Amino acid sequence: MMLFKTPFLFPLVVIFFLCFQNLIQIQAQPVNYGYSCSPSQANYPCQTYVFFRAMGPDSLDLASVGDLFSVSRKMIAEPSNFNVSISNATSPLIPDQPLLVPINCGCNFINSSFGNLSYAGLNFTFQSGDTFWKVSTQDYQNLTTYQSVEVVNPTLVPEKLQIGSSAVFPIFCKCPNSTQLQQGRTNYLITYIYHPEDNLTSVASRFGTTPQAITDVNGNNISAFDPIFIPVSRLPLLSQPAVPPTNASAPPAPQPQITSKDDRKGAVIGLGIGLGICGILLILVLGLCLKRERSLKKKLAGMKDVEKRQYDKGERALLKDAGVSLLADVADYLDKYKVFDIEELREATADFDENLLIQGSVYKGTIDGEVYAIKKMNWNAYEELKILQKVNHGNLVKLEGFCIDAEEANCYLVYEYVENGSLNTWLHGEKKGKLSWKSRLRIAIDVANGLQYIHEHTRPQVVHKDIKSSNILLDSNMRAKIANFGLAKTGCNAITMHIVGTQGYIAPEYLTDGVVSTKMDVFSFGVVLLELITGKEAIDEEGKVLWAKVGGILEGTEDKKVNKLREWMDEDILGETVSMESVLNVMTVAIACVNRDPGKRPSMVDIVYALCKSDDVLSDLSEEGLSPRPPVTAR
Ligand SMILES: *[C@@H]1O[C@H](CO)[C@@H](O)[C@H](O)[C@H]1NC(C)=O
Ligand SMILES: *[C@@H]1O[C@H](CO)[C@@H](O)[C@H](O)[C@H]1NC(C)=O
Ligand SMILES: *[C@@H]1O[C@H](CO)[C@@H](O)[C@H](O)[C@H]1NC(C)=O
Ligand SMILES: *[C@@H]1O[C@H](CO)[C@@H](O)[C@H](O)[C@H]1NC(C)=O
Ligand SMILES: *[C@@H]1O[C@H](CO)[C@@H](O)[C@H](O)[C@H]1NC(C)=O
Ligand SMILES: *[C@@H]1O[C@H](CO)[C@@H](O)[C@H](O)[C@H]1NC(C)=O
Ligand SMILES: *[C@@H]1O[C@H](CO)[C@@H](O)[C@H](O)[C@H]1NC(C)=O
Ligand SMILES: *[C@@H]1O[C@H](CO)[C@@H](O)[C@H](O)[C@H]1NC(C)=O
Ligand SMILES: *[C@@H]1O[C@H](CO)[C@@H](O)[C@H](O)[C@H]1NC(C)=O
Ligand SMILES: *[C@@H]1O[C@H](CO)[C@@H](O)[C@H](O)[C@H]1NC(C)=O
């Protein structure tokens, strides 16, 4: 059989067959390219809503749903009738929890034979294993069809989707026409996916309308998983489940993902979809073990001819798609990194001995005399791998290899070991008081260089999202390296609301609206500068953040500034003969970085320039008692 010509692909066939059995039914349905429209007949464009169900594993929090539709959490929470007092919280959603998500519906010209189609175009960036079909039916829950995606993205070849590339997904929608508006009963046509357990009465009552009104718009031959448009005069008050008690007085205290416990459940679900690199490898391994050829053949033989043809066609597209990207992926990584054996890592870390724990879930391990930092992760490793394989810079911690422990569903990333530990321990921990102003400035410049690199020289841009003193490591020469790309995100100005990051360093606009941009790293970097100058922690015992306290320092005359600055400066550097000009310079940069308005924060390029100037001031004044100056530029 053609399909199995390449023996390597055979296991993939099995896996994908198991995962996508229902493909056959999908293709048997009438093809839906979308809904035609004419801008003159209805009120285009319009703001409308889709009814979306929270669903595991990917859309069980507002943040992920917001990501999917490029809206903030607040924009979903409000129309969805969330209790106002919890709309700020990061409470997870429960499966099937109803949401109303706002979209902008337009009437879009396709080409002369297709005419215009009514949809809201959403950008979606592909990860490994994604196909038009998978994203339409699973991520977007049938709010669009893969056929429509093909029509809207004529230049994309569905079999050759590049990981990291994106497509516009046309989310079906309609705007009310003038008759509907005039009668005043239809201000919105909400897109709803009719589910097998639905009936017209139950749907109508959920939206506060009548079955008749629904059939007037959609006809009366509605089958399961059809998109329908529910005419309403105002948004329905969805009934939301009782919320778990939230701790309203405490600020949200986000935890970095890497320190979270292993999520086995997620791992198992993840397997089906086969996202992370580990998932991919595991699928390959599993696939090789599963000798299910006979049963598959039987199933294929049992299919009706037509279905089989359709199945073959669809499956081959999927397969080629998945196979190509999987192979490409794995090859990329295998080439670049060492692949360690789990036994090797166990031995290196004395079976993950607590005494070798460096921080979070990172262990120190020795393999063949080389010391490494070994991070134990759940399946989220893919993001970090994806980002790290693109970056290579002396001020970023280097990834040396990885390891997949299929049995325990764990993944390990193996990094270079950075001898002198985190900046945090040098500023606030055991090694407090041992950093001169000069070393601090050097560290600031190193970190700024690393950030400038990821912001300016990677495509798409990378935002670290968790810059803080404990993610800055110092090597034997006290040069700084940025670690922990576990939360990093590619792409800019995306809206995301996995509240990640660390209290005291998070930019205010990210907390309130989830806006991700390089400017949030600039903010966190500003906080690190403040730590370097003041020796104080980013957040004090009372939970007050450092950046909010430094507002007035730079007001008044030069003398006043210097006096105020002295009050704030770390006693440990006050003792040395520092140039106040240099410190003042850095303070000015820090305060610019923590501006509440992201638009007013400098870029990393400006910051590197300003800091180097500060460094020059220092070296011009006196080189006495200072160690020789290493070169400014990163290695
Ligand atoms: C499609 O939309 C364009 C404007 O976007 C309009 O000029 C054109 O007439 C429309 N075509 C049809 C068939 O309605
Ligand atoms: C909203 O939450 C507050 C506090 O948690 C509670 O007192 C109130 O009853 C809730 N309202 C609704 C409609 O659930
Ligand atoms: C939600 O957060 C915003 C910004 O931090 C704040 O202004 C607002 O009062 C908060 N709302 C509630 C209900 O806590
Ligand atoms: C989608 O991506 C294109 C180019 O990649 C961009 O021009 C467009 O503004 C994006 N649309 C949205 C809604 O982000
Ligand atoms: C989308 O529709 C297909 C059938 O057409 C169904 O099997 C699948 O479960 C639906 N997806 C969701 C998320 O409901
Ligand atoms: C219009 O678009 C469809 C789908 O992309 C394509 O099959 C068709 O050939 C196009 N027609 C013209 C005239 O470009
Ligand atoms: C519609 O579904 C509801 C529950 O979802 C059920 O109580 C009702 O009897 C159903 N009505 C019809 C006509 O099937
Ligand atoms: C508006 O839409 C309704 C329902 O689809 C239809 O019956 C009516 O003819 C439309 N009116 C106009 C002016 O297109
Ligand atoms: C209703 O739709 C189904 C498929 O969606 C089709 O097979 C059937 O013929 C339709 N029935 C009528 C009366 O149009
Ligand atoms: C709120 O959270 C803090 C720490 O996160 C905890 O000490 C406190 O008991 C919590 N209060 C309530 C009412 O749960």
Structure description:
With 635 residues, the chain is an alpha+beta fold. The protein folds into five domains: 1-29; 31-232, no CATH class; 276-312; 316-416, Phosphorylase Kinase, domain 1; 428-626, Transferase(Phosphotransferase), domain 1. Helix content is 38%, strand content 16%. It contains 23 helices and 18 strands. The strands form six sheets. The chain has a six-stranded mixed beta sheet, sandwiched between helices. Strand 2 (98-111) and strand 3 (115-125) form a beta hairpin. The longest helix has 32 residues, at 305-336. It is globular and about 85 Å long. The model is unreliable at 1-29, 245-331, 491-498 and 622-635 (pLDDT under 50). The structure holds 2-acetamido-2-deoxy-beta-D-glucopyranose (10 copies).
Secondary structure blueprint with pairings:
Blueprint: H1 10-19, H2 23-28, E1 46-53, H3 62-69, H4 73-77, E2 98-111, E3 115-125, H5 132-139, H6 146-152, E4 166-172, H7 178-182, E5 188-193, H8 200-207, H9 211-218, E6 227-232, H10 264-273, H11 277-289, H12 293-302, H13 305-336, E7 338-339, H14 342-348, E8 357-359, E9 362-367, E10 370-377, H15 381-388, E11 399-405, E12 410-416, H16 423-427, H17 437-456, E13 462-463, E14 472-474, E15 480-482, E16 489-490, E17 494-495, H18 508-513, E18 515-516, H19 518-534, H20 558-568, H21 571-574, H22 580-593, H23 604-621
Parallel strand pairs: 7-11
Antiparallel strand pairs: 1-2, 2-3, 3-4, 5-6, 8-9, 9-10, 10-12, 11-12, 13-16, 14-15, 17-18
The structure holds 2-acetamido-2-deoxy-beta-D-glucopyranose (10 copies).
Residues 30, 221, 223 line the site of one 2-acetamido-2-deoxy-beta-D-glucopyranose.
